[in-house]
Design a protein that fits this description.
about 240 residues; alpha/beta; Alpha/beta knot; Trp Operon Repressor, Chain A; three-stranded mixed sheet; 10 strands; elongated; binds adenine; tRNA (guanine-N(1)-)-methyltransferase; tRNA_MeTrfase_TRMD/TRM10
Length: about 240
């Protein structure tokens, strides 16, 4: 997979993408990540990328030309790839695991990170997706893009050490994950549940499912609206 990140602050990505899972994916050539500073396409002596809004109002807007030219540069470098161009925008569709799964199936992702008050509206004609990290406003799209890159890259085949773990992640199954335990069997008076120690895999699976369901019901009941509950599930959470 190829990922281009269009930003005024490319150095922000050095740390987060240079560690752990994403670093491993880059080293294994599973993903190729580039940053492009669109300041280079800024206008005039000061390479201006923003300007005041027509009609008046507070704040500055990103001008269209630098972002159009950044996309032109990416297209001419990669004429053959079909691109998903993703605009970081607090007014976009909220990012979730399903979107990360969808992105992980693409060949080429382009993240556009804005700053300032907003975008000239014509910039939206460049993009396939407008995505928000959540219902809060960040100082720029960079942190949002980092989160989306991380959540996407870990889903690429051969990135996670244990491929099964992506399928059992909280959110990918539609439920939150069940509790986990490792050694010791007892710590400060807190015991590992007996069911996990007896080697009966049928019972263990049943316990895990019930714990996932209870945890989701208590913490994130909204998630159950999209989950296909069995009669047994319904009985469990109505107790
Ligand atoms: N830029 C500023 N806030 C943002 C958010 N919540 N999501 C994506 N991009 C943003």
């Amino acid at each position: 997979m190829k990922i281009d990140i269009v930003t005024l602050f490319p150095e922000m990505f050095d740390g987060p993408l240079g560690h752990s899972m994403v670093k491993r994916a880059i080293e294994k050539d599973i993903v190729d990540i580039n940053t492009i500073n669109f300041r280079q396409f800024g206008k005039g002596k000061h390479q201006q990328v923003d300007d005041t809004p027509y009609g008046g109002g507070a704040g500055m807007l990103l001008k269209p030309e630098p972002l159009f030219e950044a996309i032109d540069a990416i297209n001419s470098r990669n004429p053959e790839t079909k691109k998903r161009v993703i605009l970081m925008d607090p007014a976009g569709k909220p990012f979730d695991q399903k979107m990360a799964e969808e992105f992980s199936e693409e060949n080429h992702l382009v993240f556009l990170c804005g700053h300032y008050e907003g975008y000239d509206e014509r910039i939206r004609s460049l993009v396939t997706d407008e995505v928000s990290l959540g219902d809060y406003v960040l100082t720029g799209g960079e942190l949002a893009a980092m989160v989306m890159v991380d959540a996407t890259v870990r889903l690429l085949p051969e990135v996670l050490g244990n491929a099964v773990s992506a399928q059992t992640d909280s959110h990918s199954s539609g439920l939150l994950e069940h509790p986990h335990y490792t050694r010791p069997a007892e710590y400060k008076g807190m015991k590992v549940p007996d069911v996990l120690m007896n080697g009966n895999h049928g019972l263990i699976e049943e316990w895990r499912h019930e714990e996932s369901l209870k945890r989701t019901f208590l913490r994130r009941p909204d998630m159950l609206e999209n989950y296909d509950l069995t009669e047994k599930d319904k009985a469990l959470i109505s107790k």
